[in-house]
Write a structure and sequence with these properties.
Shape of chain A: globular
Shape of chain B: globular
Helix content of chain A: 10-25%
Helix content of chain B: 10-25%
CATH superfamily of the largest domain in chain B: Spore Coat Polysaccharide Biosynthesis Protein SpsA, Chain A
Largest interface: A-B, 36 and 35 residues
Strand content of chain B: 25-35%
Number of strands of chain A: 30
CATH topology of the largest domain in chain B: Spore Coat Polysaccharide Biosynthesis Protein SpsA, Chain A
Oligomer: heterodimer
Largest sheet of chain B: 9 strands, mixed
Radius of gyration of chain B: 21 Å
Number of strands of chain B: 28
CATH class of the largest domain in chain B: Alpha Beta
Radius of gyration of chain A: 22 Å
Strand content of chain A: 25-35%
Number of helices of chain B: 9
Distance between the termini of chain B: 53 Å
CATH architecture of the largest domain in chain B: Alpha-Beta Complex
Structural class of chain B: alpha/beta
Distance between the termini of chain A: 49 Å
Number of helices of chain A: 8
Chain lengths: 395, 370
């Protein structure tokens, strides 16, 4: 088989559990968690790749891969199913030399797939994760990397100093070259937080991965091992500043917030527009139907939904039913959810295909300044008739 | 069972809606085109070869359908072909379906393993299990099966082909282009037959300069005893889009849950070309009442009893009622519309007022500004 040489390919780390999303990732890998009415988190890095001219993407899966694998399929929604393009799912596998098995860390996941990358003989490899909501032109970052003749370039964003100790912080010289990397420093020296997006010269990365694998003490992680090692070896490493919208949706609250940031006439994060479209696998559902009894105010309602009740400041995903007299407010309603007549849902995330039965109450309302707690229903769960799921409770 | 499909785009002129397109390309039902319903029915029947026969205006259709992937068509080698006029030796356009089938003979003869063929027209919308129709055809032992619907004929409407059935469900009369009385069952312009028989009949008819499918092959053949005809009675809802008024009435009918459910869910979902629009946004001051809304809309004003296709903008203060608004149309602030069909890419200026009537809706042509 002949493989076209590629200047740049992407490897997408999609194997993490996303345990801070709690019940939402019990049966679903984090990158497959629904977002914004018709998308899944992985649509963002995948669409970014396509929009950046990267047509070969290896997707490393491990935790609960069934749904994710099925979703990615042959890569057709992202146009990654052509003769010289691919979206290749790369699960852990067994090898003759026993240097295999479950992916031990992010670096080990790439290490185990050196052969996949070598087939394309790329100059550059972009390492991505399936945890973030953002639009970014990776091609511009690769240009920057090439122009600076760096071995590795890391995308960074400015975070408030108070929050900097939660991130991997990159301390840079005035020319944005990195002289120090600190993982979650108690006293951060700068506010350049790593976004977990890396561009590597493939030959440099390959050597570093092999070296790292031979170190039994290594935790085989990009942030903890590969980046500090390359820095110590004197490789030129650059920080690439990014100031667009970027959201880690790793917690219930941040996932809820990111959904809410899609709403409004001029939303914080605008998905609209022909440029830099986000692609998703589409469900063949008819247009949404808004009944006479419905009230739909400041909300997203995706195709295939039937609304008879009231929806305010919420995201309603594809194929949902909101019954007569039901109220959905300040909530994220994932695909296939049914909210029956008279049910009240406030400040909640309703997991895929879950059901809130008649007159049940999920979550609560908050006054200004009160600490908000999001109630969550897991995939396929049922809140029984007249039952109450209190604020912050999970089902 | 190996089956092939032939889909006619129907090039009848139904006014401004077909000014630049065939009936197959007319946007219908919020996010579909007429052809999507036929294509989906064929896809679910598992056709391996499909020909799309069009007399003219086939460019937008080819753009829409592409390789058929989005309809789940699992086509074999040489799977999808567009049969356009002048593709063979004729020096004129088609006069009738038989003549266009004559032109399609190389395609018909191509799929050697195909035994049966479905003939589908794009002007009628329904959601049908074609496998059941095929099973009924085989069981009947007749030459050809026509799918018919009770309750469409009303002594006023001209029908291409209509039949009566006796108590054994056998065809007892056939009429063509006739305002048939209510006991007649109207053809859905949907036939199933064997490929071999069809090829022979097309050759024979053309040799006798007979090119009209309903009149020459079905009616003529049945009357002369050469052709045995089986009728399959379809129980589901059928929407005939044969005029602007039909189109308007059928669009409004889709707002009724029972019609909606039957057309979109009876047997299978309906597929269409994916456009990757974001979900529609319902603004803080919008009011949407009994409407079908596709993705990508930006809704600021109010809409009642209307169908909004993809990427429609309804500015604050605008009010529409009993309207069909096709893709990418912008309705300006304070505009007021009632009983209007707005084709694609129309711009309605702020404050514009257009009032049609239920039985005489206004049509604004594609790309126009009012």
């Amino acid at each position: 088989m002949y493989f076209q040489k590629k200047r740049c390919i992407a490897m997408l780390l999609a194997g993490g559990q996303g345990s801070r999303l709690k019940v939402l990732t019990e049966k679903t890998a984090k990158p497959a968690v629904p977002f914004g009415g018709k998308y899944r988190i992985i649509d963002f890095p995948l669409s970014n790749c396509v929009n950046s001219g990267i047509d070969t993407v290896g997707i490393l899966t491990q935790y609960q891969p069934l749904e994710l694998n099925e979703y990615i399929g042959n890569g057709q929604p992202w146009n990654l199913n052509k003769t010289h393009s691919c979206a290749q799912v790369l699960p852990p596998y067994e090898r003759h030399d026993k240097k295999s098995g479950w992916y031990k860390g992010t670096a080990n996941a790439i290490y185990q797939n050196i052969d996949f990358i070598d087939r394309y003989d790329p100059d550059y490899v972009v390492i991505l994760s399936g945890d973030h909501i953002y639009k970014m032109d990776y091609a511009a970052m690769v240009e920057y990397h090439e122009k600076n003749q760096a071995s590795c370039t890391i995308a960074v964003r400015n975070v408030p100093l108070a929050e900097a100790s939660r991130f991997g912080i990159l301390n840079t010289n005035p020319d944005m070259s990195i002289y120090e990397f600190e993982e979650k420093p108690a006293r951060p020296k700068s506010t350049n937080a790593s976004m977990g997006i890396y561009v590597f010269n493939w030959q440099v990365l390959k050597a570093a991965l092999i070296e790292d694998e031979d170190d039994p003490k290594s935790s085989n992680d990009f942030g903890k091992n590969i980046i500090p090692n390359l820095l110590n070896q004197g490789h030129k490493m650059m920080a690439y500043p990014f100031d667009g919208y970027w959201k880690d949706v790793g917690t219930i609250n941040s996932l809820w917030e990111a959904n809410m940031e899609l709403l409004g006439k001029d939303p914080v994060f605008n998905l609209r527009g022909e440029r830099f479209k986000i692609y998703a696998r589409n469900s063949a559902l008819p247009s949404s139907f808004i009944a006479s009894s419905a009230k739909t105010v400041d909300c997203f309602i995706a195709e295939g939904s039937e609304v008879e009740g009231e929806v305010r400041h919420s995201v309603v995903s594809v194929g949902c039913k909101i019954g007569p007299g039901a109220v959905v407010e300040d909530s994220v309603v994932m695909p296939g959810v049914v909210v029956e007549a008279g049910a009240i849902v406030r400040h909640a995330i309703l997991g895929e295909n879950s059901r809130v039965c008649k007159n049940a109450v999920v979550g609560g309302a908050y006054g200004p300044g009160e600490e908000m707690q999001i109630s969550v229903t897991s995939k396929g769960s049922v809140v029984e008739e007249n039952a109450v799921l209190k604020p912050g409770e999970m089902m | 069972m190996n089956v092939m499909g032939i889909l006619f785009t129907n090039d009848a002129n139904i006014g401004d809606l077909t000014a630049k397109r065939s009936i197959a390309s007319i946007p219908f039902g919020g996010r579909y085109r007429q052809v999507d319903f036929g294509l989906t029915n064929l896809s679910w029947a598992g056709v391996h070869h499909l020909a799309i026969i069009s007399r003219f205006n086939y460019q937008s259709l080819m753009d829409h359908i592409g390789d058929g992937e989005e309809w789940g068509l699992e086509l074999g080698e040489g799977g999808l072909q567009y049969i356009t006029p002048y593709a063979n030796s004729q020096t004129h356009s088609y006069r009738g379906k038989l003549e266009s089938l004559y032109n399609a003979l190389p395609f018909l003869e191509y799929g050697k393993e195909d035994e049966y063929v479905f003939l589908v027209d794009s002007a009628v919308t329904y959601n049908i299990d074609l496998k059941k129709v095929l099973a009924d055809h085989i069981k009947s032992g007749k030459d050809i099966t026509v799918v018919v619907k009770r309750g469409v004929a009303n002594s006023k409407r001209m029908l291409d082909l209509a039949v009566t059935l006796n108590e054994n469900k056998e065809v007892s009369d056939i009429v063509v282009d006739y305002a048939a009385s209510p006991e007649y069952l109207a053809s859905l312009d949907l036939f199933v037959t064997t490929k071999k028989w069809l090829i022979n009949m097309v050759r024979e008819c053309m040799a006798h300069n007979a090119f009209h499918m309903d009149r020459d092959l079905i009616l003529g053949g049945w009357q002369s005893g050469k052709v045995s005809v089986n009728a399959f009675e379809f129980e589901g809802i059928t929407l005939y889009n044969e005029s602007v008024q039909d189109y308007f009435d059928n669009s409004m009918a889709l707002l009724k849950p029972e019609v909606h459910k039957d057309i979109f869910e009876r047997v299978h979902p309906v597929y269409t070309k994916v456009r990757d629009r974001v979900p529609s946004y319902y603004g803080a001051d919008s009011s949407i009442d009994n409407c079908m809304v596709a993705d990508g809309c930006m809704l600021g004003g109010s809409a009642k009893d209307s169908i909004l296709f993809r990427q429609v903008t309804l500015a604050p203060g605008a009010h529409i009622e009993d309207c069909v608004v096709m893709n990418d149309t912008d309705i300006g602030e304070g505009a007021e519309l009632k009983n209007v069909i707005l084709d694609k890419n129309v711009t309605v200026r702020p404050g514009a007022k257009l009032i049609g009537t239920r039985n005489n809706p206004i049509v604004i042509k594609r790309g126009d500004t009012v």
